[in-house]
Write a structure and sequence with these properties.
Strand content: 25-35%
Order of helices and strands: EHEEHEEHEEEEHEEEEHHHEEEEHHHH
Shape: globular
Distance between the termini: 41 Å
CATH superfamily: FAD/NAD(P)-binding domain
CATH class: Alpha Beta
Oligomer: single chain
Length: 374
């Protein structure tokens, strides 16, 4: 039996859950496909810019209700441990994806959103209607949002260019216990071939998530060896890894991460979050951008439903235009800042420079952040 919806969302991460809440609040019949049941951990920096808080509150989402930690200070160090610290111009909060995704999931359930913990194997758009097929059932809707994350078999099925080639980035995440770590601090620390972030989550656990070029990582037999031989060469990270107690049995990893440009509309699907474009993990913008992209898509989708003169082709053009206006400069700046972070000489010179002029560091931070989302 075919099940019909107003909107189907492929992926139940931050973008997918946020869009589901937004649309359900407006009375839309929404279905979400997600492989893993909640709550579950994800590889993520777990620091979120405060720019999304007004929008979250409007949706009835309150991160502090589950213990989100207020973060006001930013620290960056080079490979040798030379560091500089400054106040974050806007600030953020620390919360694990385990807690945040579950908070959003519970909100969607309050609003009557239907979840299918099934793997989508095929999407077809025909006669102005989407047909979504899983191994269990078939579903139809007028609108589909793609919010399934960094990489999926669906990307290859749709011949998305970035999915047809090998990508060189690997992300590693684990939680640690370290009682004297400053709760208000988010740190970005460099090492040979990569860089990693440290910040406190709602449970008191410290999230350490780093990004490394696979060319550097493959020289070592496992994560422990790489941490000992490469990551710990940075004195800050050496002190952390030596004194912190791991809380996961094994670190989580994601390979084949692509920072290439992606199309924001594919086969008439509106792509949100990492599915539409991935910023280098600097100051927590990936999470904020995913949430913001869900807001943009939801508002345009509602216009499509409410205005009979607002046709699909206009919806798609507007989404591309607004997405580009909202995020293209941040992505451009993030790519260039990442190049600096991957160059030992440039990052050392940069840190020495911003150490003298902290207003410059604040300016750099603002270029990777957005405005408050009302």
């Amino acid at each position: 039996m075919v099940k019909k919806y107003d909107v189907l969302i492929l992926g139940g991460g931050l973008a997918g859950l946020t869009a589901a809440i937004h649309l359900a609040l407006e009375g839309k019949h929404v279905g979400v496909f997600e492989i893993n049941e909640y709550p579950h951990h994800k590889v993520c920096g777990e620091y979120v810019s405060k720019e999304i808080l007004p929008y979250f509150n409007r949706l009835g989402i309150f991160p502090r209700s589950v213990g989100a930690v207020d973060i006001t200070q930013f620290q960056i160090s080079n490979h040798k441990g030379y560091s500089v610290e400054t106040e974050l111009p806007l600030g953020g909060f620390g919360i694990s994806r385990y807690a945040l995704d579950n908070l959003l999931y519970n909100r969607t359930k309050e609003l009557g959103v239907i979840f299918y913990f099934e793997k989508v194997i095929k999407t077809v758009f025909k006669d102005d209607t989407f047909t979504i097929t899983t191994a269990i059932n078939t579903y139809t809707s007028k609108i589909v949002l793609g919010a399934y994350g960094k990489r999926s078999i669906l990307d290859k099925n749709m011949d998305r260019e970035f999915s047809l080639k090998k990508n060189s980035w690997l992300a590693v995440k684990a939680h640690y216990q370290m009682p004297d770590f400053p709760n208000e601090l988010v740190g970005l620390h460099n090492f040979n071939g990569g860089y990693g972030g440290l910040s406190t989550t709602e449970s008191g656990a410290i999230n350490f998530c780093y990004l490394v070029h696979y060319k550097t990582f493959k020289k070592y037999k496992d994560i422990t060896a790489f941490n000992n031989e490469v990551v710990a060469k940075n004195p800050f990270l050496n002190s952390f890894l030596s004194n912190a107690k791991p809380l996961f049995k094994q670190p989580m990893t994601i390979a084949q991460i692509s920072f290439d440009k992606k199309d924001t509309v594919v086969d008439h699907m509106l792509m949100c979050g990492d599915t539409a474009g991935l910023i280098h993990p600097l100051c927590g913008n990936g999470m904020a951008m995913a949430i913001h992209s869900a807001k943009i898509a939801s508002e345009l989708v509602l216009q499509y439903f409410y205005d009979s003169k607002y046709e699909r082709n206009q919806l798609e053009r507007d989404y591309k235009k607004i997405w580009t206006k909202s995020f293209s400069k941040r992505l451009w700046f993030g790519r260039r800042l990442q190049r600096i972070l991957m160059n030992k000489t440039m990052v050392s010179i940069g840190i020495l420079t911003v150490g003298k002029w902290k207003t410059l560091l604040k300016y750099i931070i603002t270029k990777t952040h957005g405005e408050m989302i009302s």
